[in-house]
Every structure is written in structure tokens, then in C-alpha cells.
């Protein structure tokens, strides 16, 4: 085959595909750029930002947001929303602490905590899928009820678990890397795979892109919606387990406002709140952006109240810049 | 003879189009058309899809500018040549009511009537004034409803009337109604027609686009028939008979029937008995045999879509039975029908057919992901192979199998939507308007695909509002009118003229 011959169809393929791949990667590229900028700024201005210890801290903080964010990414791609993440983490941490206090073997307690998270998460899923209750309302109800229950049963006091080798091990760094970060990265791989390579993952995209068409082609829309929220609950429970290992207790007041960090990370990562569009890699970068901002501002010694203002501004500006970048690249490809 | 001499001596036409031509790439949408309508006249406008009716209407509303020729409203020519033209036509009193309603259900009748132009005093909406004016405007149409009630509580006919009432505000001279009764049951349509008569009685000209002959006979003075962008004739509706009008609409195209085998002995795969779905379907019964292409003809709003949806279990029928392979389906739901080997392609491809951002592959394979995966994990190789097979077989033009389907042409999207059921191995296909919004070449391909699928032993129900395509593909055609099957035509005796006549004839 001559070179000319081979090059021609490839070039025309490229012309039709380039617009899409480029604009898709535009999102990730601009986020990567934002992370580089944040690193440059903070390493120049924040004392100790680049230290090994602080980098480990960043990873550990990223794990808290990230693990929940993987599931929430799928939920948002399906056109839904989950605002119950923070209370779900706190609630499962409390339940896990109680189970361990009762003397239950640690692995069994872990499994039970994750199963409970999935079960509770499935409630707003069932309400959405079979009773048409918007997922915002369902998860808002869970948000209030779970936090309330956790506070009620513990009187807002930490539930101590005493000595537990397995939980201690979960907080001991492996080659300097905290296990929470490893769990996060492994789960990232799993979710990236699910979202791209499984029938379940692709069905999620189809439902978010056009739920009616998905239903008519025979996709089990209702079952997938329930499963998504169950997975969301299970991921929050895993965060809850890691929280217990870090604090040595179950804590009803923990993970306050986590749900907003999670949603911010997903949205900053380029996933459309209207559904149908998004990527795990984008969320990974979004998690890093959100974590870096939080970490850097603390190290800079900015007033904690004012930190919230700065964080809010940065999130909105990041999304704004991202949307503009994608629009420009689309326009360029069209013209 | 000029148009000016043609008009009645004592009346300036409200609107007149003089020798207008409009060309789109590849199609002459309006060909030297001359048309006028007098005050107080109700003029029916007839023509099959693509005959040029909408282009003619767009000339009058200023939405389009003719390549040559003039458009006169109220005796003076439209002069703007840009976006101001539509506003100019509006100011000269042209109003259009489209098929799709544009009301806000959660607001009151009065608020909807004045939507965006609410009477205000120092920025505060004057509800009392507004409601009084609304009540008066509705009274003109014989619509006796509380102006402070919500639109959500209105029947479809009342909503249509409210749209007309809205068009009546601000002294219009010409009101154009685009198939206003297509979504209404017969009794409801009567109310709309009564309102149209009242509108005309006030000296307002009405252009009434419809294909229901009984309505046209009831309210219109004359009917203008269009075909291929030309005004063919304007006839007196009282004098002309339906056959004559059909002949003018369709022209003398030779309709070639497909050479078909006799399927009357083949086994029955689907039987429908007395299926009812109020208010659209009264009592429908028919049988579909193996390897048969069964056409369903009917006007917009005749209940075609509802029939398919009731069979598929997308909507629950009120009465009747659906039998698959001779045994009744209890509690039909969509999934069960899919498991029975049925496939359904919806009428609105964009809203219900495709997931635009996903690739051709995923849009095809979504009917059976299990076929290209093991343990839930998709195999990229098997996906590409399976999609390639369907793409080749149905002649889908796409560079790659994973190209987002939203970037394909309508015809190619439609082939994928049909192809997903071929991939799923469905043996009975229910196709709702599969050639809608599809170019001529793709149409011919879709006909060929349907015939080929039937020869392989699949059974197909082919719903179409384009009468001329039914003889090309169908073994048998049923005519749906007023929610019931009225007539049956068998190949090779399916001719367009009788089909069209059966569709539009009154009850």
C-alpha cells in the first residue's frame, strides 16, 4: 500500500474526530494547567507547601474528597445529584465505631458498614427511579436525617474504638504514601474502567444523554439509577472507614460540608450538571484543584472565614475559564 | 392579467403574494407562486409534506424573503430585507398559530394571553385590567373560561383556542392556523372550528392549513392546493369532490407497487383485538403475519403513534388485547415486549431515538450490551465488529464506528435507530415515521432495508404520513382515521389517490 493511499482516509478521520478529542482534552489540559499554576503560586508564597509531609497531606485530603467524587461523577453524568455525602460519611463512621465497640471482628464490621452505606444510598435512588422524587430532594432528606441521627445517637461526642490493629494499619503510610491515597487511586482506576468499558458505565452516559432514548432501547433505566445511588452510599462508607482509621473514633460532626467539595470537584472537572457528559480523569484533576486550594490557603495563614470566600471565587473562575476554553476550541474547529 | 385585476372589486386583499420564487440548495421551495386572500375569507391550504405550504406561510410572516417576486400586506409591499421583516409583517397584522403550543402551563390564562407584554403601571402588573381584557378577548371566540385559572387545567382544544385568542390581540388582519385540530379528537375540533368562523366574521382573513376534508368543507370558502412549490389551483370547496382535490395534491405520479409475495397464509405473529386508548384510539383490531410489511396511514393526530405505543406497552391501553404468537400478553410492559422479540423506533428521532453525544457503536449496541461483553465488561473489538456489521448492512455513512451519532445526517441516524433492533435480533419491528426529516436517497435506502428485513422473515409495521411511500414498501396498508381502522388496501392494489382520499375523508 502506498503512503498516499494510507494517509488519505486517516486524514479525513482526523478531521472529523479531532474536534471532539481536542475539545475533550481541552478540559483536562486547562485543568492541568491550573494545577501547575497553583503549584507555582503556592510553592513561591506558602511556607512548607512543597515539603514531603505536606504533599502527603494533600494526597490524604484528596482521598477524602476523591473516593466520594468518583461515584458522584457517575451520578451527575446520569443527570442526577447527590448532596448527602458528608452526613453519610459521618453516619457510617459512627456505626462502624459502634460495631467495633460491640466487639465485632473488624473485616465483618467493614463489610457491614459498606453494605449499610449502599442500602441507605439506595433510598433516594429508589425514590428517584420509581416515585419520581428528584434526587436533589431525596438526598437532601438523607443529608438532614443522617446527620441528625448520628448526632442524636452520639450526643455529638466521638465514639472511641480503642486499639484496633487493622484500622491502625490503614493509617500507616506505605513507602510514605498514606493508604487512603492508595485506596483512592485504586478506586479511581476501577471507576475509570467502569465508566468507559462496562455496559453499566456506558448505560449511565446514555441515560444522562437522553433517558427516553435509553429506555426505548431497552436499558434498565430505573435499576441503574438505584444502583448508582447505592454505589454512592458505599463509596461514602469507605470514606467513613478511612475517617475512623484516621481519627481513631467515629464522629458525627465529621465531614462537614464535604458534599460541596465533592460536587465542586466534579463540576470543576468538567462534568456537565445537566448530565450526559463528563470524565473520571477530569474529576481526578478537579479533586486535586479543590484540595490544593484548601491546603495552600491554610498554609498561607489566611483567615479561615476569608478562605471560604477565596475558595468560592476560585471554583467559579475555574469553571468559567474552562467553559470559555472549550467554547473557543469548539468554535475554532467548526470554522 | 395582474393580481390586482383578479381581486374582487370592492376588497383589497389582506395579503397577496405575487410571482414569488424561493430556492433552497437543491430544491425549489416556492415556484413563481401567486396567492391572495381577502378580508373575512377562510382559505384552506392543502398539499402533502414538502409541497411548499410552510414556505408560503413564511413569506407572509416575513420569516423568509423571496428570491424574486413581491409580498404585499394590506396593499403595501414588505420592504425590510433583514430581521426587521418579521416585525414589519407582525405590525401589518399577520399572526400565526403553530401546531406546537407555546403556553406556560403554570401561569394563568390572562398571563399567557399577554405573555411578556403584561399591562403595567409603574412596573407593577395590572391584573384587573389584564383579566378584563383577557375575558373580552376570549369571549370573542366563544371561550367562556375564568381568566385567572391555570392553563394546566385546560383541555387541548381550550389551549388551542387560547392560542388563537392570543393571536387575536392587537387587531390582526390575517391569522394563519397550522393544522390546529391535528392533536384534537373530533368533538373537540368542532369548538376550534366554531371559533375560526367567529374570527372570520370579524373581517379577519384566515389561512387554514389542514388535511381533514370534513373540516375544510365546514368552514372554508375555498381551498388552495400546492404541489412541488407551485400553486396548482384554488377551488371552491363546495363544488370540488375529495377525489379531485387528492388528484391535484398528488399530481399524476406513477406509483409503483413493490412486487410482493402473498403472505396471507403465513403465521400470525401479532394480533391486536379491540385496542382502545382514550381519546385517541377507539377500537383497533388487526393481525400482522410473518414476513409482512403492514403500513399504517393516517393524518397527523389520527392516533398512529398511540397505536404503536399501546402495542409496545409504552402506554397502557384502556381496553383490548395484544396477542403475540397467538397467546395474549398480560400486563404488557415495554421490557416484556422487547423480550418477545419486538423493536420500536419512535417518531421523534432527536428527542427519543438517539443519545447524540455517544458514538454510533453505543447507540446501536445499547439494545443488547450483553452481546458484546463478558461479565459486564465491554470488548472494544467485538463492539467495533458488531457495529461495523450493522453499519455496512444498513449503509450508514460514518467515518468510524465510534463517531458521535449527533454529527451524522438525519437519514444515517435513522438507519442506526433501525439497526439497533436488527442487532438485537428483533423479529417484529414497529417503525413510527422512519423517513421523517430524511433526504431522498436515504429514504430509498430505508425502503430497501425494510423490504430486505421482511424477506428475512421479520414482520414490520410501517407508520407514515407520506402517502406516496406506502405503496413502495407495504404488502398491506390500513387507514387510521378518528382512532379506528377505516379501510384496508392490499398490494398490488394500493394506490395513493384512494389512500389519501381514505385518510382525509370525513366521518
Description:
The complex is a heterodimer of chains A (335) and B (507). Chain A is mostly helical. Chain A has helices at 3-45, 52-77, 85-101, 106-131, 135-154, 165-170, 179-197, 199-209, 211-216, 221-247, 258-268, 280-299, 304-334, and strands spanning 159-160, 249-250. Chain A has one domain (27-330): ABC transporter involved in vitamin B12 uptake, BtuC (Orthogonal Bundle). Chain A has 13 helices and two strands. By secondary structure, chain B is an alpha/beta fold. In chain B, α15 (410-424) runs parallel beside α16 (440-455). The longest helix of chain B is centred in the middle third of the chain and has 16 residues, at 186-201. The radius of gyration of chain B is 25 Å and the shape is globular. Classes of the chains: A mainly alpha (335), B alpha/beta (507). The A-B interface holds A 12-13, 16-17, 20, 197-200, 202-203, 205-206, 209-210, 212-220, 276-277 and B 314, 334-335, 338, 344, 346, 351-358, 362-363, 366-370, 373, 376-378, 380, 399-400, 403-404, 407, 420, 424.
Write the layout of secondary structure elements.
The complex is a heterodimer of chains A (335) and B (507).
Chain A: H1 3-45, H2 52-77, H3 85-101, H4 106-131, H5 135-154, E1 159-160, H6 165-170, H7 179-197, H8 199-209, H9 211-216, H10 221-247, E2 249-250, H11 258-268, H12 280-299, H13 304-334
Antiparallel strand pairs in A: 1-2
Chain B: H1 3-6, E1 15-24, E2 27-37, E3 42-46, H2 53-61, E4 68-73, E5 76-77, H3 84-91, E6 94-97, H4 109-113, E7 120-121, E8 124-125, H5 127-139, H6 156-168, E9 174-178, H7 186-201, E10 205-209, H8 213-219, E11 222-227, E12 230-236, H9 242-250, E13 268-277, E14 281-289, E15 293-297, H10 304-312, E16 319-324, E17 327-328, H11 334-339, E18 342-345, H12 349-353, H13 360-365, E19 373-374, E20 377-378, H14 380-393, H15 410-424, E21 428-432, H16 440-455, E22 459-464, H17 470-473, E23 476-481, E24 484-490, H18 496-504
Parallel strand pairs in B: 3-10, 3-11, 6-9, 9-10, 15-22, 15-23, 18-21, 21-22
Antiparallel strand pairs in B: 1-2, 1-4, 4-5, 7-8, 11-12, 13-14, 13-16, 16-17, 19-20, 23-24
Helix pairs in contact in B: 6-7, 9-18, 14-15, 15-16
Amino acid at each position: 500500500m502506498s503512503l498516499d493511499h494510507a494517509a488519505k482516509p486517516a486524514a479525513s478521520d482526523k478531521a472529523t474526530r479531532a474536534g471532539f478529542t481536542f475539545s475533550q482534552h481541552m478540559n483536562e489540559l486547562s485543568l492541568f494547567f491550573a494545577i501547575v499554576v497553583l503549584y507555582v503560586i503556592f510553592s513561591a508564597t506558602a511556607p512548607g507547601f512543597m515539603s514531603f509531609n505536606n504533599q502527603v497531606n494533600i494526597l490524604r485530603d484528596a482521598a477524602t474528597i476523591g473516593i466520594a467524587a468518583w461515584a458522584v461523577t457517575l451520578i451527575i453524568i446520569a443527570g442526577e445529584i447527590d448532596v448527602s455525602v458528608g452526613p453519610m460519611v459521618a453516619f457510617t463512621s459512627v456505626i462502624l465505631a459502634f460495631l467495633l465497640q460491640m466487639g465485632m471482628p473488624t473485616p465483618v464490621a467493614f463489610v457491614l458498614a459498606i453494605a449499610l452505606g449502599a442500602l441507605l444510598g439506595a433510598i433516594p435512588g429508589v425514590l428517584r427511579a420509581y416515585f419520581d422524587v428528584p434526587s436533589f430532594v431525596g438526598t437532601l432528606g438523607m443529608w438532614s436525617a443522617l446527620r441528625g441521627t448520628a448526632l442524636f445517637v452520639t450526643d455529638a461526642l466521638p465514639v472511641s474504638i480503642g486499639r484496633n490493629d487493622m484500622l491502625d494499619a490503614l493509617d500507616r503510610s506505605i513507602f510514605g504514601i498514606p493508604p487512603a491515597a492508595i485506596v483512592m487511586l485504586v478506586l479511581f482506576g476501577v471507576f475509570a474502567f467502569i465508566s468507559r468499558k462496562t455496559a453499566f458505565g456506558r448505560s449511565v452516559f446514555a441515560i444522562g444523554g437522553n433517558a427516553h432514548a435509553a429506555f426505548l432501547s431497552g436499558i434498565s433505566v430505573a435499576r441503574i439509577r438505584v444502583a448508582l445511588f447505592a454505589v454512592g452510599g458505599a463509596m461514602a462508607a469507605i470514606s467513613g472507614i478511612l475517617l475512623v482509621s484516621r481519627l481513631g473514633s467515629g464522629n458525627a460532626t465529621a465531614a462537614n460540608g464535604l458534599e460541596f467539595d465533592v460536587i465542586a470537584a466534579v463540576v470543576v472537572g468538567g462534568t456537565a450538571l445537566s448530565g450526559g457528559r463528563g470524565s473520571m480523569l477530569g474529576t481526578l484533576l478537579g479533586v486535586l484543584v479543590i484540595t490544593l486550594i484548601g491546603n495552600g490557603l491554610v498554609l498561607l495563614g489566611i483567615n479561615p472565614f476569608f478562605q471560604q470566600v477565596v475558595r468560592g471565587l476560585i471554583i467559579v473562575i475555574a469553571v468559567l475559564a474552562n467553559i470559555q476554553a472549550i467554547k473557543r476550541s469548539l468554535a475554532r474547529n467548526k470554522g | 392579467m395582474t393580481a390586482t385585476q383578479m381581486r374582487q372589486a370592492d376588497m383589497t386583499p389582506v395579503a397577496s403574494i405575487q410571482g414569488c420564487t424561493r430556492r433552497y440548495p437543491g430544491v425549489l421551495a416556492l415556484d413563481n407562486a401567486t396567492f391572495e386572500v381577502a378580508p373575512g375569507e377562510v382559505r384552506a391550504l392543502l398539499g402533502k409534506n414538502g409541497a411548499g405550504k410552510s414556505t408560503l406561510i413564511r413569506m407572509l410572516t416575513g420569516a423568509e424573503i423571496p428570491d424574486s417576486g413581491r409580498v404585499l400586506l394590506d396593499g403595501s409591499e414588505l420592504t425590510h430585507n433583514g430581521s426587521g421583516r418579521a416585525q414589519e409583517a407582525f405590525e401589518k397584522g399577520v399572526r400565526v398559530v403553530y401546531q406546537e403550543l407555546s403556553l406556560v402551563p403554570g401561569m394563568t390564562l390572562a398571563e399567557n394571553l399577554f405573555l411578556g407584554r403584561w399591562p403595567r403601571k409603574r412596573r407593577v402588573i395590572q391584573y384587573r385590567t389584564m383579566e378584563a381584557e383577557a375575558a373580552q378577548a376570549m369571549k370573542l371566540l366563544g371561550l367562556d373560561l375564568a381568566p385567572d385559572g391555570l392553563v394546566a387545567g385546560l383541555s387541548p382544544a381550550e389551549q388551542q383556542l387560547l392560542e388563537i385568542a392570543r393571536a387575536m390581540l392587537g387587531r390582526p388582519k390575517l391569522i394563519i392556523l397550522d393544522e390546529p385540530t391535528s392533536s384534537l379528537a373530533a368533538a373537540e375540533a368542532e369548538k376550534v372550528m366554531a371559533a375560526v368562523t367567529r374570527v372570520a366574521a370579524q373581517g379577519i382573513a384566515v389561512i387554514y392549513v389542514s388535511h381533514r376534508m370534513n373540516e375544510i368543507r365546514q368552514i372554508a370558502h375555498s381551498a388552495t392546493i400546492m404541489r412541488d412549490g407551485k400553486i396548482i389551483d384554488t377551488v371552491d370547496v363546495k363544488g370540488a369532490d375529495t377525489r379531485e382535490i387528492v388528484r391535484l395534491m398528488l399530481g399524476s405520479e406513477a406509483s409503483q407497487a413493490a412486487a410482493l409475495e402473498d403472505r396471507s397464509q403465513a403465521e400470525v405473529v401479532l394480533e391486536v383485538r379491540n385496542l382502545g386508548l382514550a381519546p385517541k384510539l377507539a377500537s383497533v383490531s388487526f393481525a400482522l403475519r410473518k414476513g409482512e410489511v403492514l403500513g399504517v396511514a393516517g393524518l397527523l393526530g389520527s392516533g398512529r403513534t398511540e397505536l404503536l405505543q399501546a402495542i409496545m406497552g409504552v402506554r397502557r391501553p384502556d381496553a383490548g388485547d395484544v396477542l403475540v404468537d397467538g397467546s395474549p400478553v398480560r400486563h404488557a410492559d415495554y421490557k416484556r415486549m422487547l423480550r418477545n422479540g419486538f423493536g420500536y423506533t419512535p417518531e421523534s428521532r432527536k428527542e427519543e431515538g438517539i443519545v447524540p453525544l455517544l458514538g454510533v457503536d453505543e447507540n446501536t449496541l445499547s439494545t443488547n450490551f450483553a452481546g458484546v461483553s463478558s461479565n459486564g465488561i465491554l470488548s472494544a473489538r467485538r463492539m467495533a465488529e458488531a457495529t461495523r456489521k450493522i453499519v455496512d448492512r444498513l449503509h450508514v455513512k460514518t467515518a468510524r464506528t465510534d463517531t458521535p451519532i449527533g454529527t451524522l445526517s438525519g437519514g444515517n441516524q435513522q438507519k442506526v435507530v433501525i439497526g439497533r433492533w436488527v442487532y438485537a435480533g428483533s423479529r417484529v419491528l414497529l417503525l413510527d415515521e422512519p423517513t421523517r426529516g430524511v433526504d431522498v436517497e436515504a429514504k430509498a435506502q430505508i425502503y430497501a432495508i425494510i423490504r430486505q428485513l421482511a424477506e428475512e422473515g421479520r414482520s414490520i409495521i410501517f407508520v407514515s404520513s407520506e402517502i406516496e411511500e406506502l405503496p413502495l414498501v407495504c404488502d398491506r396498508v390500513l387507514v387510521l382515521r378518528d382512532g379506528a381502522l377505516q379501510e384496508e388496501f392490499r398490494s398490488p392494489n394500493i394506490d395513493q389517490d384512494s389512500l389519501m382520499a381514505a385518510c382525509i375523508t370525513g366521518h
